[in-house]
Amino acid sequence: MDSEELLDEGFEKNNTQKKVYLHSKASIALVFIFLSPYYASYLYGVNLYRTGQYKKIFGTVTTLILCNLAVLVGILGFDLSQEVFSVKIYLHYFISRSVTSLLILLPIWKKHFKKQSYKTIFDYKTVGILFAIKVLLTLVMYNSIAMLLDFRSSFIIQPVFLGLILIVKNVIDLILGKPFKMRDPS
What is the pLDDT along the chain (186 residues), one digit of tens a residue? Predict the structure, then answer.
């Protein structure tokens, strides 16, 4: 009888154990490279929050942001007097974000989540909305009125703006009582 109770207890524990849903490595890397390193750092922090690694959130998010800025300054330098919409600047930003994503983001994923049992998801709707906002911001910057306002730092402002939009959205979700809402992809 004791062995049956132990088996039943073990079976119940295995069935009630909930799998954690995390944003996938690919989704965080794509958001980091193409949209906003600040929002990608936030998504990574959400993953740490969901797995209960609260003490690592601030340090990891700060590290990701500072490493992106260090690589960017190393490639581009402090000279932002170049032509605002030149292909060279787009290339510098793409290279800096790719290097940071591959050398920083992916290795720390293995360190933080190798012992965790999780499923990964990709939030297509949010990323699609962000990409549409980014395209609209880029088109507005080509406007002659925007050129008169001298948007030399627009490549720094865009990711910050996109990141702030989503952070405000998630703070509103926290206030309404539905933090980090995720759908079961199955």
Answer: 555 544 444 444 444 455 677 777 777 888 877 777 777 888 888 888 888 888 888 888 888 778 777 766 665 555 555 555 556 666 777 777 787 777 777 788 888 877 777 777 777 777 777 777 777 766 665 554 445 555 545 555 556 666 666 667 666 665 665 555 445 444
- Do the domain assignments include residue 186? no
Q: What is the DSSP annotation of 80-144?
A: --S-TT-HHHHHHHHHHHHHHIIIIIHHHHHHHHTT--EEEE--HHHHHHHHHHHHHHHHHHTSH
The length of the chain, given as a count of residues: 186
Tokens of 84: 């605002």
Residues 6+ apart with CB under 8 A from 67: 100, 104
Give domain status of residue 11, yes or no. Answer: no
Is residue 105 within 8 Å of 40, Cβ to Cβ? yes
Only one residue has tokens 């509103």, namely 172
Q: Domain range spanning residue 64?
A: 20-176
Q: Look at residue 3 and tell me if it is in a domain.
A: no
What sign does the dihedral 74-165-31-106 (CA atoms) show?
A: positive
Quote the number of domains for the chain. 1
- CA–CA separation, 50 vs 141, rounded Å? 37
Residue type, 54: Y
